[in-house]
Design brief:
Layout lengths: L1 H21 L3 H11 L4 H16 L9
């Protein structure tokens, strides 16, 4: 039980930092990460990708370094 709580707490911190870097609602993602743990990762990555595409445009090339 303690392991599950620690994993959810670590996920909350991770999603807060990553949401802040991506320009998403950091408190919302931290709360979802606290409640559901790492199960939220696919939804978070899709949300981050949609936000990036909305900011850059859909017909523009984007290269990551």
């Amino acid at each position: 039980m303690l392991t599950v709580i620690l994993v959810c707490l670590a996920s909350s911190c991770y999603f807060f930092v990553e949401a802040t870097k991506a320009g998403l609602a950091a408190k919302q993602w931290a709360l979802v990460g606290l409640l559901m743990g790492p199960l939220v990762w696919p939804m978070f990555s899709i949300s981050r990708h949609v936000r990036m595409r909305k900011d850059c445009g859909f017909n523009n090339a984007y290269m990551q370094a």
